[in-house]
Amino acid sequence: DADVTQTPRNRITKTGKRIMLECSQTKGHDRMYWYRQDPGLGLQLIYYSFDVKDINKGEISDGYSVSRQAQAKFSLSLESAIPNQTALYFCATSSPGATGELFFGEGSRLTVL
Amino acid sequence: GEDVEQSLFLSVREGDSSVINCTYTDSSSTYLYWYKQEPGAGLQLLTYIFSNMDMKQDQRLTVLLNKKDKHLSLRIADTQTGDSAIYFCAEKRADTGRRALTFGSGTRLQVQP
Q: Do A45 and B99 touch (CB under 8 A)?
């Protein structure tokens, strides 16, 4: 089983709908992240959380919200999806060690029509 | 500049060496990373280099760091078809304050038989 699991892997929805992407991890890491990937733009940080009570906005948080339900769970919500939120979304975790290595899930592909 | 920059595409023949280049943004970044993304998968850490090093070698991979020019490169010796993927450069910037990584746009490496 994957250490970082994202659900759903693929989702097609309509403009204005509320969408939740879920992430769970078995690595025991405190730090969790949500990134968005667009072709040619690399990965952009949406939100990150360093523990259950610590939530921080990233570079592109507008239109998104998050919930850290437990150490192992970090969900991303789009309250009212719009077409330019069509992208590949990645959840990642890291330990507080010096290298800061990120461990990624396999991604959730979201299409907003 | 504000962005971590990479060329978008590189094509090489099997058996040749590949060199992927990256210009990063923060001269005080402590760690620089190379991640690999295979089709349909999340990113996986390939290698990283600490900022007080000029070079790091790991089997077929050689990382060169030029701090003066804020330039990072990844050389893959004897490139194989299995090396075809997108390669992301990333830095741990001091200005984020929380060690979230900043990624480049990714370089798609195509290895021709």
A: no
Phi (first) and psi of residue A49, to 5 degrees: -140, 125
Closest CA to B96 of A90, A66, A100: A100
Any idea what DSSP says for residue B96? G
For A5, nearest residue in chain B (alpha carbons): B42
The position carrying tokens 């920059």 is B5
Listing DSSP states for B16-48 in one string gives: S-EEEEEE-S-TT--EEEEEEE-TTS-EEEEEE
pLDDT by residue (tens digit) across B16-47?
A: 999 999 999 887 888 899 999 998 888 999 99
More confident residue, A54 or B99: A54
A97 interfaces chain B, CB cutoff of 8 Å = no
Q: Bridge-partner residues for A76, per DSSP? A: A21, A66
What is the phi/psi pair of residue A85, to 5°?
-95, 5
